[in-house]
Amino acid sequence: MSGYASTSDSDHKSTTDTSLQDTPQAIPPLPDFNGRVLGSAAVCGILIAGVIDGIFDQNLLWLLAAGAVWPHTVMFVSRSIGAGREPRIRQYMLLVECIVIGSVIGLTGLTPVPSLAMGLQLMFSCLIVGGLYLWFYGTLLLGAAAGLMVGLLGLTTDFSTPLLTSVVSLVGVGIYICVTAYYTHQQARILLSAKTQIQKQREQSIALSDKLSKYLSPQVWQSIFTGERDVRLETRRKKLSVFFSDIKGFTDLSEEMEPEALTELLNHYFNEMSEVALKYGGTIDKFVGDSIMIFFGDPSSRGQKEDALACVSMAVDMRNHMKIMRQRWRSQGIRTPLEIRMGISSGFVTVGNFGAENRMDYTIIGKEVNLASRLEQLAEPGQILVSYETFSLIKERIMCRDKGEITVKGFGRPVSIYEVIDFRRDLGPNRSFVEHEHAGFAMYLDSGNICDRDRRSILEALEEAADRLRDEEADR
């Protein structure tokens, strides 16, 4: 016959995560049924004290039976309606209790201390269960019910409250508030501990996923962790652009260098080339020896034409970037000229997860893969060879040279191949890329990628170098 301040129903099974079972002093919230029993006992105690002091009519003792039955009635009704709508049901039941307690307050003639105690007890429950929203409507219903009963029965003639009734009222509401507040506090501690553990597990999951992402291409990793793709054995046919590259001269270099130094050089090369690949949106498939396999168009695609253009643009950028790396290696004492050679093919391949249920590899297979690998093997150092299919997709923006036809296993007729020269915008007097290399001198200039703040320092360095060459020429 009173409100409750718990946050779970008596028949509601605990769904606390197993990670919370180790929380120190984990005390569940005060069940609804127990809260109502405690609240009803406080109200019944107030009524008994009021009858003993003679301020309440003895006919009100029938409310003691109602107070004993009320918690069982609410529990039965809640179960009958269904636990799936529990939050809304609990609020409705509490509003009904506001009407009931308001009527009891009216029946007692608005005796100050008992009325205040019963109202305070119920408003405390409303605040905990439903916040200010439920407290506001609960107060309205409580006041309306009390006012209606007072209008029918009238006010008490003596507003003074005897000592026994006052003590029982204050002790009853005090015990109720303290007990429910204690359980609410313990529940808050559990929730705080749960939040801390969830945050810790989240940080561990992020750290683990970051480590696992090193073994997958960023596009594949993102599609898995965002739920866009399931981790299961499945493949599909899709038109992609496939890229292969390797380092010409790497075998000779491996015989000259120590394994540790060779490993460092190779990792540096892979890191630089991977940055270029990711810049253009390529999906890095694998590293094999000094070779790299990359494809464009999956998991995400910008269209066949744009995928092919991005693939060839990446290859051109890699070729230019290799010249910078070669200068850096030369400064480190590596004299063997290392050149990159590349092959690109576009067409339908089978892409997806291959392998076993417990060990998968996200890769591609098909004759276009074999063709790209074959083109890479045929390419000269510093050369980019593309198939006719790729050429047809990029020819409007990239200049290519016809290199004739080759015979490739898996193709019924000879395949036309083309050599990538450069972007059409970079050909002629307005080109942004300039390179020059002699003994004792090497220059690589890509004016399109130079920012304004670096342009002045580059000009000063070039002028200083030119002045020194002129002075040496004059001294001769």
Task: Give me a quick take on this structure.
With 476 residues, the chain is an alpha+beta fold. It is built from twelve helices and ten strands. It folds into three domains: 18-206, no CATH class; 236-429, Nucleotide cyclase, GGDEF domain (Alpha-Beta Plaits, 2-Layer Sandwich), CATH 3.30.70; 432-476, no CATH class.
Structural account:
It comes from Marinobacter zhanjiangensis. Keywords: Membrane, Transmembrane, Transmembrane helix. Residues 241-376 form the Guanylate cyclase domain. The chain crosses the membrane at residues 37-56, 62-82, 94-113, 133-156, 163-183. This is Protein CyaB. The protein has helices spanning 32-53, 62-81, 86-107, 112-153, 163-213, 218-225, 250-256, 259-279, 304-331, 367-378, 388-394, 452-475; strands at 235-248, 283-288, 291-296, 339-356, 359-365, 384-387, 398-406, 415-423, 433-438, 441-446. It is built from twelve helices and ten strands. The model is unreliable at 6-30 (pLDDT under 50). The protein has three domains: 18-206, no CATH class; 236-429, 2-Layer Sandwich (Alpha-Beta Plaits); 432-476, no CATH class. The longest helix is centred in the middle third of the chain and has 51 residues, at 163-213. A hairpin with a 2-residue loop joins strand 4 and strand 5 (359-365). The N and C termini lie far apart (113 Å). The chain has 476 residues and is of the alpha+beta class. Helix 3 crosses helix 4 (112-153). Strands 1, 2, 3, 4, 5, 6, 7 and 8 form an eight-stranded mixed beta sheet that branches. It has a two-stranded antiparallel sheet with strand order 9-10.
